[in-house]
Amino acid sequence: MSGFSEYSNYDGLALGELVNKGDVKPEELLDEAIARVDAVNPQINAITTKMYDLAREQIKKGLPEGPFKGVPYPIKDLALHIPGTVLTNGSRAYADYVSDHESILVSRYKSAGLVLFGKTNTPEFGLVTTTEPQLFGPCRNPWNLDHSTGGSSGGAGAAVAARICPMANASDGGGSIRIPASSNGVFGFKPTRARTPLAPDKFDSWNGFSISHAVTLSVRDNAALLDATDGPALGDMYQAPRKDRPFLDEVGRDPGNLKIAFSAVSASGTPVDPECVKAAEMAAELCAELGHDVEEARPTYDAASLMRSMLSFMAADIAWSFTLREEQLGRALEDDEIETITRRYVEMGRGQSLFEYTRAKYDFQRGVRDIAPFFEKYDVFIQPVLGTPPPKLGHIDMMSEDMTTFGERVGIHSPFTALYNMTGQPSMSVPLHWSKEGLPVGTMFTAKYGNDALLFRLAAQLEKARPWIGKTPPVCA
């Protein structure tokens, strides 16, 4: 069967509408997505696992009448289980691990009508702000193949930017939705903590910092997808505040006159590239033009203390994951099965005491409370997503023996995003600026805990004022 050549003219909701009306068959959309993988994936290495037979079987069994019926959708190769498929977590240690059950979020994707046709490239256990795993090799930026796609959802960002698909699953534990959205010139939304479930395998991840959602071309796809996946799973320990109405209904709704703060200053004191500063300043100017009250301001908090706490939680979580793998294998993992920096995290996690972990927890809680009053004064906070435009591949190296240099490079690259994983606030990357070298530079907008709806209203307003969907990279299907 031939594909659907007009595929790129539609976002996910529009494609789903065509299928629901009978104007296009799901098989045509899948064939088109596969053809696009064949066309561009050899250059960008975004799709690392092909699930075409599984996708065809999903269609053959019959798709529900969901809003995204028949829309091809790749899953990030991290944490989410699809029975009978390899779940590598971007790691050689998990290269042959096959899932025997289905994650609740995957079930919700299927109920929305999405056709799961592949898995996207991710760094080992999502630990870094670039996607260059030893297992699969680097994911390359479709805007410039020598540059990073960001991480850890780099494959998802590249797949959407290159128009393999209009939307892709992504997850964010320290910026991993917003960073690749910024780096690839697409829209990325990190929901409020616990808005989407991690069941049945976890209540939370990285002490509640990590959450799954998506990168998309359009704002409305992102909102509708969150409607389809929002809500706790049975037995979850906590949940996000309930929404007043469907998030899709917020798209196009007047956000009102917002009080907005902006700052391009890194709380850790690292330098911020002029292009990233320019992106934030231009976004602030645009918001002022749209009638919002904008002023320069930023919260005061101990950034170093919060980052130490985050590293403690991450290290403990990663150490447990690899300990679990060793128990499954019945042996210790060899050095060539774990990347060098990951090994350091594992050692850190196994080496810290319960007292040190508890101290990190209380330092973290105090820091989060220091930030909360700022968002009582301001509706939205504008910042750069990143401290630099997408760096060249190899600049941030998970195989480095120099942990100090590695940490400094990550800190300079991404000094902004992780804060809102700690606070659990909704935060988004909006593609409003491209550097003079032609690389995307996203702007981050963050709202009060639980106020995802406000960000969707603002995002739709920005999308209408400065449309980005027509911007396509040099490597594009």
Structure notes:
This protein has helices spanning 12-21, 26-44, 52-61, 104-111, 154-161, 178-184, 219-229, 247-250, 274-289, 303-329, 340-351, 354-371, 374-377, 403-413, 419-423, 452-465; strands at 47-50, 72-76, 115-120, 140-141, 144-148, 167-172, 187-190, 211-216, 259-262, 293-296, 380-384, 427-434, 440-447. The protein has one domain: Alpha-Beta Complex (Amidase signature (AS) enzymes). The chain is an alpha+beta fold. Strands 6-8-7-12-13-11-9-10 form an eight-stranded mixed sheet, sandwiched between helices. The chain has a three-stranded mixed sheet with strand order 1-3-2. A two-stranded antiparallel ribbon has the order 4-5. Helix 4 links the parallel strand 2 (72-76) and strand 3.
pLDDT < 50 stretches: none
Overall residue-averaged pLDDT value = 97
Order of helices and strands: HHEHEHEEEHEHEEHHEHEHHHHEHHEEH
Determine the strand fraction and express it as a percent band. 5-15%
CATH topology: Amidase signature (AS) enzymes
Number of strands: 13
What number of structural domains do the residues give? Answer: 1
